[in-house]
Amino acid sequence: xxxxSGVRVDDATSxxxxxxxxxxxxxxxxxxxEVTFSRSWYQTGAxxxxxxxxxxVVVKKGWFSKDHIHFKFQIDPVTGRVxxxxx
Length: 87
Known about the structure:
The chain has one helix at about 10-25, and strands spanning about 30-45, 50-60, 65-75, 80-85. It is α+β, with helices and mostly antiparallel strands. Strands 1-2-3-4 form a four-stranded antiparallel β-sheet, covered by helices on one side.
């Protein structure tokens, strides 16, 4: 589990900001070229509520190449931490 924010996540925009910061920390700020979000939703659970954020990121690989990567994050709304991710 990686702590990214430590700030309460109250809306979809905040959840997307946490996801973007996580992607930049994983790939580097100079390699992340574009982040687009396709879905962001709040999901209640029996034990814990979470924000789910899904989308695509364009990551620069070299001078002329780049990767398009699909991602999905689960974010704790109380702490702002990324609980789980799929890249």
